[in-house]
Amino acid sequence: MRVMPLAADSLGVRSMATYVEAGDLRLLMDPGATVSPKRYGLGPTPEELEALARAVDRVEAYAVRANVVTVSHYHADHCRAEPLIYAGRRVWAKEPRRMTDRHQAQQGRAFWAAMGPHCALEAAEGRLVEVRDASLKMSPPLPHGSEGSGFGFVVAVTVDDGMRFVHAADVQGPVSQVATAYLIRERPDLLYLSGPPTYLESQIGRQTVQGGLDNLLRIVNETGCRVILDHHAVRDRRYRERLGPAFETGRVVTAAEYLDRREQCLEMRRPELWAGHRRAAAAGRLPPAPSQKEDIAWQRDHR
User: Fold this and answer.
1) CA angle, 122 as apex, 117 and 128 as ends, to 5°?
2) How many whole angstroms separate alpha carbon 124 and alpha carbon 139?
């Protein structure tokens, strides 16, 4: 099996877009990417916007290879309504009419109306397909964060070709005991999830964050899996310290580390990035022109 994160917070944008090859399966998961419109009272930096443009191009390039696309839920960093991504493919997407919040229900219905004419679109929950040498399984709805959080539900994906890979978007830790129990039952060899959102602790409470970390450690201890921990987890300047027990297991890495690339957690660096641009403007220096060097290297390293 080949697992490739295409866009992630540790790569500069809000995303968990991932491409997997296993047997005859060519799978694109959660093909969305965004940047936060406001963080620390600041808008996106030029570096973030450049990273977003590269991420969108990368996702669209790998969509051409895919024969199946999955959508875990309808937040913009996970779902993008672009026909190019889905046209002619089998698409499994979260059912927007049940077990969802009002915002996602609205976004989901709009997605189905717009993308349905272009692809074979079906509700994802509980789906199972087997192809040569691999299987693809979709979970029942799992809480987006805590039970009753108001953010609805998500659908996790398991790919098995002898190695078991689980993509569990926005379970946030997982915080939910239901999501934790499901992921342990799946017995992943490699698990990709959005970790405890320590940057939101003032809103959701320290106990919730600690619960997410405890559940993550429980999954690692009970399954022995390796973990790609990214997305919500790396938006805190002190995420290495706050989530130290997870990284200290030696089983947990960010998406950038998994790809052996330099981390670019740009969102959490907005204040100093904007300060650098102000200093450059005051000195009369123009910002450097966008470079394609990074994506050229990406395609060379991962083709």
Assistant:
1) 145
2) 8
Which residues, 6 or more positions from 144, have their beta carbon under 8 angstroms from its beta carbon? 73, 151, 152, 153, 154, 170, 171, 172
The torsion of the CA quartet 267, 270, 276, 277, rounded to 10 degrees, works out to 90
State how beta strands 18-22 and 90-93 pair.
unpaired
- Which domains does the chain possess? 2-283 (3.60.15.10)
Tokens for 137, please give them: 């399984």
Least confident of 60-74, 145-159, 169-183: 145-159
Q: Give residue 287's pLDDT.
A: 60
- Give the Cα separation of 10 and 99 in Å (integer): 30
Amino acid type, 153: F
pLDDT in tens, 250-271: 999 999 999 999 999 999 999 9
Q: Is 69 exposed, middle or buried (0-12, 13-18, 19+ CB in 10 A)?
A: buried
pLDDT at residue number 137: 97
Residue listed under structure tokens 């799946």: 186
SS3 content of the chain, % helix, strand, coil (to 5): 40, 20, 40
* Per-residue 3-state assignment (H helix, E strand, C coil) for 239-280: HHHHCHHHHCCCCEECHHHHCCCCCCCCHHHHHHHHHHHHHH
Retrieve residue 284's tokens: 């009369």
Average pLDDT over residues 12-16: 98
Q: Give me the pLDDT at residue 292, please.
A: 47
Q: What is the pLDDT of residue 65?
A: 96
The alpha-helical segments, DSSP class H, found in 161-268 are: 177-186, 201-204, 206-223, 239-242, 244-247, 255-258
Peptide bond before 83: cis, by omega within 30 degrees of 0?
A: no
In DSSP terms, 129 is beta-bridged to 136
pTM: 0.92
